[in-house]
Amino acid sequence: MSSAATKVAQSQQPQPAAAEAPPAKDAARVPKDYSSYRVVAAKHPWRWVGTAAVALGVLAVAGSLATNPRWEWGVVAQWFTAQSVVNGLVETLKLTAISGILGFVLGFILALMRLSASPLLVSVSWTFSWIFRSTPLLVQMLLWYNLGYLYEKISLGIPFTDVRFFEVQTTTLISQFAAAVLGLTLNQAAYSAEIIRGGILSVDQGQLEAAAALGIPAWRRSTRIVLPQAMRAILPTAFNEIIGLVKGTSIVYVLAYSELFYTVQVIYNRTQQVLPLLLVATLWYIVITSVLSVFQYYIERHYSRGAVRNLPLTPLQKARKFFATHAAVPNRRNL
Amino acid sequence: MTNTLTAPTAARGLVEITGVRKSFGATEVLKGVSLTVEPGGVAVIVGPSGSGKSTLLRTINHLEKVDGGHITIDGQLVGYEVRGDRLYELREKEILKQRTGIGMVFQNFNLFPHLTALENVAEAPVVAQGRSKEEARRRGLELLDRVGLKDRADAYPRQLSGGQQQRVAIARALALDPKILLFDEPTSALDPELVNEVLDVIRELATSGTTLVIVTHEMGFARDVADTVVFMDQGQIVEQGTPQQIFSNPQEPRTRSFFSKVLEPAFNI
User: Fold this and answer.
1) Strands B80-83 and B68-73, bridge-based pairing
2) Of all residues in chain A, what percent carry a pLDDT higher than 70?
3) Of B112, B129, B158, the CB nearest to A309
Protein backbone atom coordinates (compact mmCIF):
# COMPACT_ATOMS: atom_id res chain seq x y z
CA MET A 1 0.00 0.00 0.00
CA SER A 2 2.43 2.60 1.22
CA SER A 3 5.06 1.79 -1.38
CA ALA A 4 2.50 2.12 -4.15
CA ALA A 5 1.32 5.42 -2.74
CA THR A 6 4.79 6.94 -2.65
CA LYS A 7 5.44 5.78 -6.19
CA VAL A 8 2.39 7.57 -7.40
CA ALA A 9 3.40 10.68 -5.54
CA GLN A 10 6.89 10.61 -7.07
CA SER A 11 5.72 9.97 -10.57
CA GLN A 12 3.25 12.82 -10.38
CA GLN A 13 6.00 15.34 -9.68
CA PRO A 14 7.74 15.43 -13.05
CA GLN A 15 4.61 14.89 -15.12
CA PRO A 16 3.08 18.36 -15.11
CA ALA A 17 6.27 19.91 -16.37
CA ALA A 18 7.00 17.33 -19.07
CA ALA A 19 3.68 16.16 -20.42
CA GLU A 20 0.98 18.60 -19.48
CA ALA A 21 2.48 22.01 -19.98
CA PRO A 22 2.92 22.41 -23.76
CA PRO A 23 -0.33 20.91 -25.20
CA ALA A 24 -2.51 22.03 -22.31
CA LYS A 25 -5.03 24.03 -24.35
CA ASP A 26 -5.44 21.59 -27.25
CA ALA A 27 -5.64 18.56 -24.96
CA ALA A 28 -8.44 20.16 -23.01
CA ARG A 29 -10.56 20.46 -26.14
CA VAL A 30 -10.04 17.11 -27.87
CA PRO A 31 -10.24 14.20 -25.37
CA LYS A 32 -7.35 11.88 -26.05
CA ASP A 33 -8.22 8.38 -27.22
CA TYR A 34 -6.60 5.74 -25.01
CA SER A 35 -8.37 2.76 -26.50
CA SER A 36 -5.29 1.45 -28.33
CA TYR A 37 -3.07 1.51 -25.21
CA ARG A 38 -2.07 -1.64 -23.36
CA VAL A 39 -3.09 -1.92 -19.71
CA VAL A 40 -0.28 -3.05 -17.43
CA ALA A 41 -1.57 -4.52 -14.18
CA ALA A 42 -0.24 -3.03 -10.92
CA LYS A 43 2.65 -5.05 -9.43
CA HIS A 44 2.54 -6.23 -5.83
CA PRO A 45 6.07 -7.49 -4.99
CA TRP A 46 5.46 -7.66 -1.22
CA ARG A 47 2.44 -9.83 -1.77
CA TRP A 48 4.72 -12.37 -3.43
CA VAL A 49 7.24 -12.18 -0.59
CA GLY A 50 4.46 -12.80 1.94
CA THR A 51 3.06 -15.66 -0.11
CA ALA A 52 6.47 -17.30 -0.31
CA ALA A 53 7.07 -16.97 3.43
CA VAL A 54 3.71 -18.49 4.33
CA ALA A 55 4.14 -21.26 1.75
CA LEU A 56 7.49 -22.10 3.32
CA GLY A 57 5.88 -22.35 6.75
CA VAL A 58 3.08 -24.56 5.47
CA LEU A 59 5.59 -26.83 3.75
CA ALA A 60 7.63 -27.14 6.96
CA VAL A 61 4.57 -28.17 8.99
CA ALA A 62 3.41 -30.61 6.31
CA GLY A 63 6.91 -32.05 6.08
CA SER A 64 7.15 -32.70 9.78
CA LEU A 65 3.70 -34.33 9.78
CA ALA A 66 4.76 -36.62 6.98
CA THR A 67 8.30 -37.48 8.10
CA ASN A 68 8.04 -37.73 11.90
CA PRO A 69 7.47 -41.47 12.48
CA ARG A 70 5.89 -40.85 15.90
CA TRP A 71 2.65 -39.72 14.27
CA GLU A 72 2.29 -43.37 13.25
CA TRP A 73 0.17 -42.67 10.18
CA GLY A 74 0.01 -46.38 9.47
CA VAL A 75 -1.83 -46.96 12.73
CA VAL A 76 -4.11 -43.99 12.00
CA ALA A 77 -4.99 -45.42 8.59
CA GLN A 78 -5.59 -48.84 10.09
CA TRP A 79 -8.10 -47.58 12.66
CA PHE A 80 -9.64 -44.72 10.67
CA THR A 81 -12.26 -46.91 9.03
CA ALA A 82 -12.29 -49.76 11.56
CA GLN A 83 -15.78 -51.06 12.30
CA SER A 84 -15.77 -50.01 15.98
CA VAL A 85 -14.61 -46.48 15.13
CA VAL A 86 -17.26 -46.11 12.43
CA ASN A 87 -19.90 -47.36 14.87
CA GLY A 88 -18.74 -44.73 17.36
CA LEU A 89 -18.89 -42.10 14.63
CA VAL A 90 -22.48 -43.06 13.82
CA GLU A 91 -23.39 -42.73 17.51
CA THR A 92 -21.77 -39.29 17.63
CA LEU A 93 -23.72 -38.16 14.55
CA LYS A 94 -26.92 -39.59 16.01
CA LEU A 95 -26.45 -37.75 19.31
CA THR A 96 -25.60 -34.51 17.50
CA ALA A 97 -28.57 -34.68 15.16
CA ILE A 98 -31.15 -35.61 17.79
CA SER A 99 -29.95 -33.20 20.49
CA GLY A 100 -29.32 -30.47 17.92
CA ILE A 101 -32.81 -30.64 16.44
CA LEU A 102 -34.63 -31.11 19.76
CA GLY A 103 -32.44 -28.46 21.38
CA PHE A 104 -33.24 -25.84 18.75
CA VAL A 105 -36.96 -26.66 18.69
CA LEU A 106 -37.11 -26.33 22.47
CA GLY A 107 -34.91 -23.24 22.26
CA PHE A 108 -37.33 -21.66 19.77
CA ILE A 109 -40.24 -22.29 22.14
CA LEU A 110 -38.24 -20.89 25.05
CA ALA A 111 -37.35 -17.79 23.00
CA LEU A 112 -41.01 -17.17 22.14
CA MET A 113 -41.92 -17.64 25.83
CA ARG A 114 -39.26 -15.14 26.81
CA LEU A 115 -40.62 -12.59 24.32
CA SER A 116 -44.27 -13.19 25.25
CA ALA A 117 -46.42 -10.80 27.25
CA SER A 118 -47.06 -13.30 30.05
CA PRO A 119 -44.84 -12.68 33.09
CA LEU A 120 -45.06 -16.36 34.09
CA LEU A 121 -43.86 -17.63 30.71
CA VAL A 122 -41.08 -15.06 30.72
CA SER A 123 -39.81 -16.07 34.14
CA VAL A 124 -40.07 -19.81 33.47
CA SER A 125 -38.04 -19.38 30.29
CA TRP A 126 -35.51 -17.18 32.06
CA THR A 127 -35.14 -19.64 34.94
CA PHE A 128 -34.63 -22.55 32.54
CA SER A 129 -31.79 -20.77 30.77
CA TRP A 130 -30.35 -19.61 34.07
CA ILE A 131 -30.19 -23.11 35.55
CA PHE A 132 -28.92 -24.95 32.51
CA ARG A 133 -26.33 -22.35 31.66
CA SER A 134 -25.07 -22.21 35.25
CA THR A 135 -24.36 -25.91 35.73
CA PRO A 136 -21.58 -27.86 34.02
CA LEU A 137 -22.81 -30.20 31.29
CA LEU A 138 -20.84 -32.99 32.92
CA VAL A 139 -22.79 -32.62 36.15
CA GLN A 140 -26.11 -32.46 34.28
CA MET A 141 -25.26 -35.73 32.49
CA LEU A 142 -24.43 -37.55 35.70
CA LEU A 143 -27.56 -36.19 37.37
CA TRP A 144 -29.81 -37.42 34.58
CA TYR A 145 -28.11 -40.79 34.55
CA ASN A 146 -28.59 -41.13 38.31
CA LEU A 147 -32.17 -39.90 38.29
CA GLY A 148 -33.22 -43.38 39.41
CA TYR A 149 -31.58 -42.71 42.75
CA LEU A 150 -33.75 -39.62 43.29
CA TYR A 151 -36.98 -40.96 41.82
CA GLU A 152 -37.30 -44.73 41.70
CA LYS A 153 -40.34 -44.70 39.46
CA ILE A 154 -41.63 -42.28 36.85
CA SER A 155 -45.34 -42.20 36.15
CA LEU A 156 -47.74 -40.25 34.02
CA GLY A 157 -51.10 -39.41 35.57
CA ILE A 158 -53.30 -36.59 36.77
CA PRO A 159 -51.47 -34.50 39.37
CA PHE A 160 -52.76 -34.56 42.98
CA THR A 161 -54.86 -37.70 42.33
CA ASP A 162 -54.15 -41.42 42.31
CA VAL A 163 -54.90 -41.78 38.60
CA ARG A 164 -51.88 -43.24 36.78
CA PHE A 165 -51.78 -43.97 33.06
CA PHE A 166 -48.48 -45.76 33.24
CA GLU A 167 -45.60 -46.20 35.60
CA VAL A 168 -42.07 -47.23 34.81
CA GLN A 169 -38.83 -47.93 36.63
CA THR A 170 -36.57 -44.87 36.18
CA THR A 171 -33.47 -46.95 35.53
CA THR A 172 -35.12 -48.70 32.59
CA LEU A 173 -36.39 -45.41 31.15
CA ILE A 174 -33.14 -43.47 31.48
CA SER A 175 -30.63 -45.50 29.51
CA GLN A 176 -27.19 -44.14 28.74
CA PHE A 177 -28.55 -42.94 25.43
CA ALA A 178 -31.58 -41.25 27.02
CA ALA A 179 -29.43 -39.56 29.65
CA ALA A 180 -27.04 -38.35 26.96
CA VAL A 181 -29.83 -36.98 24.74
CA LEU A 182 -31.62 -35.41 27.71
CA GLY A 183 -28.49 -33.70 28.97
CA LEU A 184 -27.32 -32.46 25.59
CA THR A 185 -30.79 -31.34 24.47
CA LEU A 186 -31.69 -29.36 27.57
CA ASN A 187 -28.30 -27.73 27.70
CA GLN A 188 -28.45 -26.92 23.98
CA ALA A 189 -31.98 -25.52 24.34
CA ALA A 190 -30.83 -23.06 27.00
CA TYR A 191 -28.16 -21.66 24.70
CA SER A 192 -30.12 -21.73 21.47
CA ALA A 193 -33.06 -19.94 23.14
CA GLU A 194 -30.81 -16.93 23.63
CA ILE A 195 -29.45 -17.14 20.09
CA ILE A 196 -32.94 -17.27 18.59
CA ARG A 197 -34.20 -14.51 20.87
CA GLY A 198 -31.27 -12.34 19.79
CA GLY A 199 -32.10 -13.00 16.16
CA ILE A 200 -35.74 -12.08 16.62
CA LEU A 201 -34.80 -8.88 18.47
CA SER A 202 -32.48 -7.88 15.63
CA VAL A 203 -35.43 -7.54 13.23
CA ASP A 204 -36.66 -3.96 12.98
CA GLN A 205 -39.88 -3.18 14.84
CA GLY A 206 -41.22 -1.48 11.72
CA GLN A 207 -41.40 -4.86 9.99
CA LEU A 208 -43.91 -6.11 12.54
CA GLU A 209 -45.89 -2.89 12.33
CA ALA A 210 -46.05 -3.05 8.56
CA ALA A 211 -47.18 -6.68 8.71
CA ALA A 212 -49.80 -5.86 11.33
CA ALA A 213 -51.03 -2.88 9.30
CA LEU A 214 -51.48 -5.23 6.33
CA GLY A 215 -53.63 -7.56 8.43
CA ILE A 216 -51.15 -10.45 8.27
CA PRO A 217 -51.96 -12.95 11.08
CA ALA A 218 -49.55 -13.34 14.00
CA TRP A 219 -48.23 -16.82 13.17
CA ARG A 220 -47.61 -15.88 9.56
CA ARG A 221 -45.95 -12.68 10.76
CA SER A 222 -43.42 -14.72 12.72
CA THR A 223 -42.75 -17.38 10.12
CA ARG A 224 -42.86 -15.35 6.92
CA ILE A 225 -41.66 -11.90 7.97
CA VAL A 226 -39.63 -12.07 11.18
CA LEU A 227 -37.91 -15.47 11.18
CA PRO A 228 -36.46 -15.30 7.66
CA GLN A 229 -34.85 -11.99 8.60
CA ALA A 230 -33.84 -13.22 12.05
CA MET A 231 -32.14 -16.23 10.44
CA ARG A 232 -29.34 -14.03 9.18
CA ALA A 233 -28.41 -13.16 12.73
CA ILE A 234 -29.17 -16.64 14.09
CA LEU A 235 -27.28 -18.81 11.61
CA PRO A 236 -23.60 -18.01 12.26
CA THR A 237 -23.99 -18.48 16.01
CA ALA A 238 -26.28 -21.47 15.57
CA PHE A 239 -23.66 -23.25 13.47
CA ASN A 240 -21.08 -22.41 16.10
CA GLU A 241 -23.33 -24.16 18.58
CA ILE A 242 -23.89 -27.21 16.39
CA ILE A 243 -20.19 -27.55 15.70
CA GLY A 244 -19.63 -27.18 19.44
CA LEU A 245 -22.23 -29.87 19.99
CA VAL A 246 -20.45 -32.31 17.65
CA LYS A 247 -17.42 -32.16 19.86
CA GLY A 248 -19.50 -31.65 22.99
CA THR A 249 -20.95 -35.13 22.52
CA SER A 250 -17.52 -36.48 23.51
CA ILE A 251 -18.47 -35.59 27.09
CA VAL A 252 -20.90 -38.51 27.23
CA TYR A 253 -17.86 -40.74 27.68
CA VAL A 254 -18.59 -40.22 31.40
CA LEU A 255 -21.69 -42.39 30.86
CA ALA A 256 -19.52 -45.05 29.17
CA TYR A 257 -21.60 -44.43 26.05
CA SER A 258 -19.70 -45.73 23.05
CA GLU A 259 -19.60 -42.72 20.78
CA LEU A 260 -16.52 -41.77 18.79
CA PHE A 261 -14.34 -40.44 21.58
CA TYR A 262 -15.19 -43.19 24.10
CA THR A 263 -14.57 -45.87 21.45
CA VAL A 264 -11.16 -44.42 20.66
CA GLN A 265 -10.30 -44.30 24.36
CA VAL A 266 -11.25 -47.94 24.79
CA ILE A 267 -9.04 -48.89 21.86
CA TYR A 268 -5.94 -46.98 22.98
CA ASN A 269 -6.28 -48.24 26.51
CA ARG A 270 -5.93 -51.69 25.00
CA THR A 271 -3.26 -51.01 22.35
CA GLN A 272 -1.39 -48.12 24.07
CA GLN A 273 -1.31 -46.20 20.74
CA VAL A 274 -2.69 -43.08 22.36
CA LEU A 275 -1.67 -40.33 19.93
CA PRO A 276 -2.52 -42.07 16.64
CA LEU A 277 -5.96 -42.99 17.95
CA LEU A 278 -6.66 -39.47 19.22
CA LEU A 279 -5.65 -38.40 15.73
CA VAL A 280 -8.26 -40.75 14.29
CA ALA A 281 -10.98 -39.07 16.39
CA THR A 282 -9.61 -35.61 15.55
CA LEU A 283 -9.67 -36.29 11.82
CA TRP A 284 -13.27 -37.46 12.01
CA TYR A 285 -14.30 -34.36 13.96
CA ILE A 286 -12.57 -32.25 11.29
CA VAL A 287 -14.46 -34.07 8.55
CA ILE A 288 -17.83 -33.51 10.25
CA THR A 289 -17.08 -29.83 10.91
CA SER A 290 -15.99 -29.29 7.32
CA VAL A 291 -19.20 -30.78 5.97
CA LEU A 292 -21.21 -28.61 8.36
CA SER A 293 -19.29 -25.52 7.26
CA VAL A 294 -20.27 -26.17 3.64
CA PHE A 295 -23.91 -26.46 4.69
CA GLN A 296 -23.57 -23.25 6.69
CA TYR A 297 -22.21 -21.38 3.68
CA TYR A 298 -25.10 -22.32 1.44
CA ILE A 299 -27.81 -21.86 4.05
CA GLU A 300 -26.48 -18.42 4.96
CA ARG A 301 -26.35 -17.54 1.30
CA HIS A 302 -29.98 -18.57 0.94
CA TYR A 303 -31.08 -16.30 3.78
CA SER A 304 -29.05 -13.34 2.55
CA ARG A 305 -31.55 -12.89 -0.29
CA GLY A 306 -32.52 -9.25 -0.33
CA ALA A 307 -30.09 -8.34 2.46
CA VAL A 308 -27.21 -7.77 0.07
CA ARG A 309 -27.61 -6.03 -3.27
CA ASN A 310 -26.00 -8.88 -5.18
CA LEU A 311 -25.55 -12.40 -3.87
CA PRO A 312 -21.86 -13.33 -3.55
CA LEU A 313 -20.65 -15.99 -5.97
CA THR A 314 -20.44 -19.56 -4.70
CA PRO A 315 -16.94 -21.10 -4.73
CA LEU A 316 -18.01 -23.13 -7.76
CA GLN A 317 -19.15 -20.03 -9.63
CA LYS A 318 -15.93 -18.26 -8.62
CA ALA A 319 -13.83 -21.11 -9.99
CA ARG A 320 -15.80 -21.14 -13.21
CA LYS A 321 -15.37 -17.39 -13.60
CA PHE A 322 -11.64 -17.65 -12.85
CA PHE A 323 -11.09 -20.24 -15.57
CA ALA A 324 -13.36 -18.47 -18.01
CA THR A 325 -11.43 -15.20 -17.68
CA HIS A 326 -7.93 -16.66 -17.39
CA ALA A 327 -8.36 -19.08 -20.25
CA ALA A 328 -8.85 -16.17 -22.59
CA VAL A 329 -5.51 -14.45 -21.95
CA PRO A 330 -5.14 -12.76 -25.38
CA ASN A 331 -8.31 -10.77 -24.76
CA ARG A 332 -7.05 -9.26 -21.51
CA ARG A 333 -8.37 -5.85 -22.39
CA ASN A 334 -11.89 -7.14 -22.28
CA LEU A 335 -11.71 -8.03 -18.62
CA MET B 1 -57.36 22.66 -6.64
CA THR B 2 -59.44 20.64 -4.18
CA ASN B 3 -60.85 17.56 -5.70
CA THR B 4 -64.18 17.25 -3.96
CA LEU B 5 -64.81 14.07 -5.85
CA THR B 6 -67.84 12.68 -4.10
CA ALA B 7 -67.26 8.96 -4.25
CA PRO B 8 -70.03 7.02 -6.02
CA THR B 9 -70.34 4.57 -3.15
CA ALA B 10 -71.65 6.89 -0.47
CA ALA B 11 -70.37 5.81 2.96
CA ARG B 12 -66.98 4.44 1.97
CA GLY B 13 -64.14 5.65 4.10
CA LEU B 14 -65.75 8.10 6.48
CA VAL B 15 -63.33 8.63 9.36
CA GLU B 16 -64.67 10.13 12.58
CA ILE B 17 -62.26 10.77 15.42
CA THR B 18 -63.88 11.89 18.67
CA GLY B 19 -62.06 13.17 21.75
CA VAL B 20 -59.08 10.85 21.36
CA ARG B 21 -56.51 10.83 24.16
CA LYS B 22 -53.23 8.98 24.30
CA SER B 23 -50.30 9.04 26.73
CA PHE B 24 -46.85 7.53 26.58
CA GLY B 25 -45.84 7.21 30.20
CA ALA B 26 -46.36 10.58 31.82
CA THR B 27 -46.49 12.56 28.56
CA GLU B 28 -49.90 13.07 27.04
CA VAL B 29 -49.36 13.17 23.28
CA LEU B 30 -53.00 13.46 22.24
CA LYS B 31 -55.19 15.66 24.40
CA GLY B 32 -58.70 15.08 23.16
CA VAL B 33 -58.50 15.27 19.38
CA SER B 34 -61.64 15.33 17.21
CA LEU B 35 -61.56 15.25 13.44
CA THR B 36 -63.86 14.13 10.62
CA VAL B 37 -62.61 13.13 7.20
CA GLU B 38 -65.35 12.74 4.58
CA PRO B 39 -65.38 9.71 2.29
CA GLY B 40 -62.99 10.29 -0.57
CA GLY B 41 -61.63 13.34 1.19
CA VAL B 42 -57.99 14.26 1.54
CA ALA B 43 -56.95 15.47 4.98
CA VAL B 44 -53.39 16.68 5.41
CA ILE B 45 -52.10 16.99 8.96
CA VAL B 46 -49.25 19.43 9.49
CA GLY B 47 -47.52 20.74 12.56
CA PRO B 48 -44.21 20.81 14.44
CA SER B 49 -42.35 17.63 15.46
CA GLY B 50 -43.80 15.99 18.54
CA SER B 51 -47.22 17.54 18.03
CA GLY B 52 -48.86 14.10 17.92
CA LYS B 53 -49.54 13.95 14.16
CA SER B 54 -48.07 10.49 13.62
CA THR B 55 -49.61 9.10 16.80
CA LEU B 56 -53.04 10.32 15.70
CA LEU B 57 -52.54 8.63 12.34
CA ARG B 58 -51.52 5.37 13.99
CA THR B 59 -54.61 5.32 16.20
CA ILE B 60 -56.80 5.23 13.08
CA ASN B 61 -55.70 1.67 12.27
CA HIS B 62 -55.26 0.71 15.91
CA LEU B 63 -51.48 0.42 15.78
CA GLU B 64 -51.75 2.63 18.86
CA LYS B 65 -54.52 1.85 21.30
CA VAL B 66 -56.31 5.01 22.48
CA ASP B 67 -56.60 5.81 26.20
CA GLY B 68 -59.79 7.80 25.77
CA GLY B 69 -62.29 8.84 23.12
CA HIS B 70 -63.07 6.71 20.06
CA ILE B 71 -62.61 6.38 16.32
CA THR B 72 -65.16 5.08 13.86
CA ILE B 73 -64.83 4.17 10.22
CA ASP B 74 -68.11 4.25 8.32
CA GLY B 75 -69.79 4.21 11.71
CA GLN B 76 -67.95 1.10 12.90
CA LEU B 77 -65.76 1.44 16.00
CA VAL B 78 -62.06 0.77 15.51
CA GLY B 79 -60.70 -1.86 17.91
CA TYR B 80 -63.89 -2.32 19.93
CA GLU B 81 -67.32 -3.82 19.63
CA VAL B 82 -70.46 -2.41 21.22
CA ARG B 83 -72.64 -4.90 23.07
CA GLY B 84 -75.27 -3.45 25.35
CA ASP B 85 -73.67 -0.57 27.17
CA ARG B 86 -70.17 -1.98 27.03
CA LEU B 87 -67.24 -1.78 24.67
CA TYR B 88 -65.56 -5.12 24.19
CA GLU B 89 -61.99 -5.05 23.00
CA LEU B 90 -61.72 -6.89 19.70
CA ARG B 91 -59.49 -9.91 19.42
CA GLU B 92 -56.36 -9.83 17.28
CA LYS B 93 -58.08 -11.62 14.41
CA GLU B 94 -60.91 -9.10 14.16
CA ILE B 95 -58.54 -6.15 14.44
CA LEU B 96 -56.49 -7.59 11.57
CA LYS B 97 -59.66 -7.83 9.52
CA GLN B 98 -60.47 -4.18 10.21
CA ARG B 99 -56.96 -3.20 9.21
CA THR B 100 -57.33 -4.72 5.76
CA GLY B 101 -59.70 -1.81 5.03
CA ILE B 102 -57.03 0.71 6.01
CA GLY B 103 -53.76 0.90 4.11
CA MET B 104 -50.71 2.48 5.67
CA VAL B 105 -47.54 3.90 4.18
CA PHE B 106 -44.64 4.44 6.56
CA GLN B 107 -41.89 7.02 6.68
CA ASN B 108 -39.21 4.30 6.47
CA PHE B 109 -41.14 2.27 3.88
CA ASN B 110 -40.92 -0.89 6.03
CA LEU B 111 -40.82 -3.08 2.96
CA PHE B 112 -39.95 -6.69 3.73
CA PRO B 113 -36.31 -6.81 2.60
CA HIS B 114 -36.22 -10.57 1.99
CA LEU B 115 -39.15 -10.46 -0.42
CA THR B 116 -39.16 -9.02 -3.95
CA ALA B 117 -41.25 -5.97 -4.82
CA LEU B 118 -43.98 -8.19 -6.25
CA GLU B 119 -43.89 -10.57 -3.26
CA ASN B 120 -44.21 -7.57 -0.95
CA VAL B 121 -47.32 -6.44 -2.79
CA ALA B 122 -48.88 -9.89 -3.20
CA GLU B 123 -48.33 -11.20 0.35
CA ALA B 124 -51.23 -9.61 2.24
CA PRO B 125 -54.04 -10.28 -0.27
CA VAL B 126 -53.26 -14.01 -0.04
CA VAL B 127 -52.94 -14.39 3.72
CA ALA B 128 -55.29 -11.62 4.92
CA GLN B 129 -58.00 -11.79 2.26
CA GLY B 130 -57.69 -15.38 1.10
CA ARG B 131 -57.22 -14.55 -2.56
CA SER B 132 -55.49 -17.02 -4.85
CA LYS B 133 -51.76 -16.61 -5.40
CA GLU B 134 -52.26 -16.21 -9.12
CA GLU B 135 -54.84 -13.46 -8.65
CA ALA B 136 -52.65 -11.66 -6.10
CA ARG B 137 -49.70 -11.79 -8.49
CA ARG B 138 -51.70 -10.42 -11.39
CA ARG B 139 -53.16 -7.64 -9.27
CA GLY B 140 -49.70 -6.98 -7.80
CA LEU B 141 -48.25 -6.45 -11.26
CA GLU B 142 -51.13 -4.13 -12.12
CA LEU B 143 -50.45 -2.06 -9.03
CA LEU B 144 -46.71 -1.96 -9.66
CA ASP B 145 -47.53 -0.79 -13.15
CA ARG B 146 -49.72 1.93 -11.68
CA VAL B 147 -46.82 3.28 -9.61
CA GLY B 148 -44.52 2.93 -12.63
CA LEU B 149 -42.45 -0.02 -11.42
CA LYS B 150 -43.72 -3.00 -13.38
CA ASP B 151 -40.24 -3.69 -14.75
CA ARG B 152 -38.75 -3.85 -11.24
CA ALA B 153 -41.23 -6.44 -9.95
CA ASP B 154 -38.51 -9.01 -9.21
CA ALA B 155 -36.09 -6.59 -7.57
CA TYR B 156 -35.48 -6.75 -3.83
CA PRO B 157 -36.12 -3.53 -1.89
CA ARG B 158 -32.39 -2.89 -1.37
CA GLN B 159 -31.90 -2.89 -5.11
CA LEU B 160 -34.36 0.00 -5.44
CA SER B 161 -33.93 3.72 -4.78
CA GLY B 162 -35.76 5.29 -1.84
CA GLY B 163 -38.43 6.77 -4.09
CA GLN B 164 -38.98 3.45 -5.82
CA GLN B 165 -39.21 1.67 -2.47
CA GLN B 166 -41.85 4.08 -1.27
CA ARG B 167 -43.81 3.59 -4.48
CA VAL B 168 -43.70 -0.18 -3.92
CA ALA B 169 -44.92 0.46 -0.36
CA ILE B 170 -47.84 2.44 -1.75
CA ALA B 171 -48.67 -0.37 -4.17
CA ARG B 172 -48.50 -2.80 -1.23
CA ALA B 173 -50.98 -0.68 0.74
CA LEU B 174 -53.29 -0.50 -2.27
CA ALA B 175 -53.27 -4.27 -2.77
CA LEU B 176 -55.97 -4.76 -0.15
CA ASP B 177 -58.30 -2.27 -1.86
CA PRO B 178 -58.49 -0.11 1.27
CA LYS B 179 -61.21 2.46 1.86
CA ILE B 180 -58.70 4.63 3.64
CA LEU B 181 -55.01 5.23 3.11
CA LEU B 182 -52.78 6.60 5.85
CA PHE B 183 -49.48 8.24 4.93
CA ASP B 184 -47.00 8.81 7.75
CA GLU B 185 -44.50 11.36 6.42
CA PRO B 186 -44.10 9.40 3.18
CA THR B 187 -41.32 11.61 1.79
CA SER B 188 -39.33 12.47 4.92
CA ALA B 189 -36.73 9.74 4.38
CA LEU B 190 -36.21 10.59 0.71
CA ASP B 191 -33.56 12.61 -1.07
CA PRO B 192 -35.07 15.88 -2.35
CA GLU B 193 -34.95 14.84 -6.01
CA LEU B 194 -36.92 11.65 -5.25
CA VAL B 195 -39.74 13.37 -3.36
CA ASN B 196 -41.78 14.30 -6.41
CA GLU B 197 -42.07 10.82 -7.91
CA VAL B 198 -43.78 9.73 -4.67
CA LEU B 199 -45.94 12.83 -4.38
CA ASP B 200 -47.12 12.36 -7.97
CA VAL B 201 -48.40 8.89 -7.11
CA ILE B 202 -50.23 10.23 -4.04
CA ARG B 203 -51.66 13.08 -6.12
CA GLU B 204 -53.07 10.53 -8.51
CA LEU B 205 -54.62 8.62 -5.61
CA ALA B 206 -56.25 11.78 -4.28
CA THR B 207 -58.56 11.83 -7.27
CA SER B 208 -59.46 8.14 -7.01
CA GLY B 209 -62.15 8.35 -4.33
CA THR B 210 -60.08 6.70 -1.60
CA THR B 211 -60.01 8.63 1.66
CA LEU B 212 -56.47 9.86 2.35
CA VAL B 213 -55.05 11.01 5.65
CA ILE B 214 -51.56 12.37 5.15
CA VAL B 215 -48.99 13.57 7.66
CA THR B 216 -46.34 15.56 5.82
CA HIS B 217 -43.86 18.40 5.97
CA GLU B 218 -44.29 19.18 2.25
CA MET B 219 -46.36 22.36 2.49
CA GLY B 220 -46.57 22.95 -1.25
CA PHE B 221 -47.91 19.46 -1.74
CA ALA B 222 -50.38 19.89 1.15
CA ARG B 223 -51.75 23.06 -0.42
CA ASP B 224 -52.01 21.27 -3.73
CA VAL B 225 -53.72 18.07 -2.74
CA ALA B 226 -55.72 18.64 0.45
CA ASP B 227 -59.43 19.27 0.92
CA THR B 228 -58.77 19.89 4.57
CA VAL B 229 -55.58 21.02 6.19
CA VAL B 230 -55.28 20.26 9.89
CA PHE B 231 -52.71 22.09 11.99
CA MET B 232 -51.71 20.26 15.18
CA ASP B 233 -49.56 21.46 18.05
CA GLN B 234 -48.87 19.93 21.47
CA GLY B 235 -51.38 17.12 21.10
CA GLN B 236 -54.28 19.28 19.96
CA ILE B 237 -55.83 20.40 16.71
CA VAL B 238 -55.23 24.14 16.71
CA GLU B 239 -56.95 24.97 13.46
CA GLN B 240 -58.42 23.27 10.44
CA GLY B 241 -59.89 24.39 7.16
CA THR B 242 -59.34 24.53 3.42
CA PRO B 243 -55.74 25.01 2.27
CA GLN B 244 -56.72 28.55 1.27
CA GLN B 245 -57.89 29.39 4.79
CA ILE B 246 -55.04 27.73 6.64
CA PHE B 247 -52.08 28.73 4.49
CA SER B 248 -53.18 32.21 3.38
CA ASN B 249 -55.25 33.38 6.29
CA PRO B 250 -54.48 31.47 9.48
CA GLN B 251 -56.49 32.69 12.47
CA GLU B 252 -54.51 31.30 15.39
CA PRO B 253 -51.19 32.87 16.45
CA ARG B 254 -49.59 29.42 16.84
CA THR B 255 -50.49 28.51 13.26
CA ARG B 256 -49.13 31.80 12.01
CA SER B 257 -45.86 31.45 13.85
CA PHE B 258 -45.41 27.85 12.57
CA PHE B 259 -46.02 28.79 8.96
CA SER B 260 -43.82 31.84 9.22
CA LYS B 261 -40.98 29.41 10.01
CA VAL B 262 -41.70 26.71 7.44
CA LEU B 263 -43.28 28.56 4.52
CA GLU B 264 -40.74 31.30 3.92
CA PRO B 265 -38.13 29.39 1.99
CA ALA B 266 -40.68 27.60 -0.19
CA PHE B 267 -43.12 30.37 -1.02
CA ASN B 268 -41.30 33.68 -1.01
CA ILE B 269 -38.96 32.93 -3.86
Assistant:
1) unpaired
2) 89
3) B158
